[in-house]
Amino acid sequence: MDNPPGMIQQLIGGHFDWLFRESLYWTAFGLIGNVLFGLRFFVQWLLSEKHQRLVVPPIFWHLSFWGSIICLIYAVHIDKLPVILGYFFLPVIYARNLRLLRKTKPEVPAGREADKSTRPI
Question: Which end of the chain is more exposed for a tag (fewer CB within 10 A), N or C?
Fold first, then answer.
């Protein structure tokens, strides 16, 4: 039995039928988004342990941005409004953090070279 079309599919489905077709590729795409989004915390944890202080490296924000973009696209694919709303604003927030990161110079402790892989909070 086929599920009735969701809200997004009813609005744009005629033009983007491929977006709502189930396939192994869509499942893999969704998994990639979740892995990227979850990997950000793993990377942050490893670097914080290495430096024995809280560190949020630039890659954290890149993984957050791209993971949220992929998860948002996948949420539109599954056409479930609570999931879509859960990811809807995240790319905007992470994009803003990436812009701020680009404008910010890393802090260099006296007598030490800058470690470009990390930025302290």
Answer: N
